[in-house]
Amino acid sequence: MKAIISVFFLILAFPTLARADKPAKLGLCAACHGENGISRTPGVPHLAGQDETYLRKALNDYRSGVRKVSPMSSIANQLQPKDIAAFAKWYAAQPGFRTDSKMRANK
Ligand code: HEC
Description:
By secondary structure, the protein is mostly helical. Helix content is 52%, strand content 0%. The protein is built from five helices and no strands. It is globular and about 60 Å long. Heme C (HEC) binds next to helix 2, helix 3 and helix 4.
């Protein structure tokens, strides 16, 4: 009986664990990377579906100065570690870019 109850609660908890909450500061990124991580701007990379650990590392590298590229260095400077974790989780959870994704407004 205990096992059945445990499984029941695991199933209930699963969608909550798998879901990525929309980061509070997503507005800082959306103009360039899109809310869903599909960039609409030439020269701006897609983030959707990218590896979460890689996204966190990239943001930490901009923040620490290991990676220095405008405009990301100054943007990442304003982020706290909890923001970086939230953005990495969010963008990793979005469906990745496909060649038939709507990338640019003029296409
Ligand atoms: C003004 C446009 C702009 C805004 C706003 C912006 N970015 Fe970027 N972002 C870029 C550009 C351009 C690059 C590519 C920089 C490079 O060559 O390293 C980039 C790169 C990145 C990368 C590295 C991608 C990779 O494949 O290595 C991450 C992660 C990232 N941005 C996350 C964010 C997050 C999170 C925010 C919001 C807090 C944000 N960006 C806001 C333009 C922007």
